[in-house]
């Protein structure tokens, strides 16, 4: 190889130097950062989704508890009406 400037900057001379290792290291670091960012985004999205579903579950549980209370109230009214009807029938049958 001569001292010709064209030969000094030939692509193969750059690749044979530590520059190729440096570029490879930069590439690996960029990929590592991308992986870490994706993992972080996944955790944030998962937590948001978990919170959303916890809220939905809490809403459903609240609705079920309210419906149960309403049904228990109606059941109590029906039982009271049955007792009153039975008493009324017994009092009217004694005439």
Describe this structure in words.
This protein has 3 helices and no strands. It is 89% helix and 0% strand. The model has no long low-confidence stretch (mean pLDDT 87). It has one domain. It has helices at 5-8, 11-15, 18-93.
SS-derived structural category = mainly alpha
Question: Could you spell the SSE succession in H and E letters?
Answer: HHH
Cα gyration radius (Å): 40 Å
Report the count of strand segments: 0
The tally of domains stands at 1
Describe the sheet with the most strands. Answer: none
Strand content: under 5%
Return residue spans where pLDDT drops below 50 for at least 5 consecutive residues: none
End-to-end gap = 132 Å
Q: Helix count? A: 3
As an assembly, this protein is: single chain
Q: Helix fraction?
A: over 70%
Q: What is the average of the pLDDT values?
A: 87
Q: What is the 3D shape?
A: rod-shaped
Task: Label this structure with key terms.
95 residues, 3 helices, single chain, 0% strand, mainly alpha
Provide the fold topology.
Elements: H1 5-8, H2 11-15, H3 18-93
Summarize the structure.
With 95 residues, the chain is mostly helical. Helices cover 89% and strands 0% of the residues.
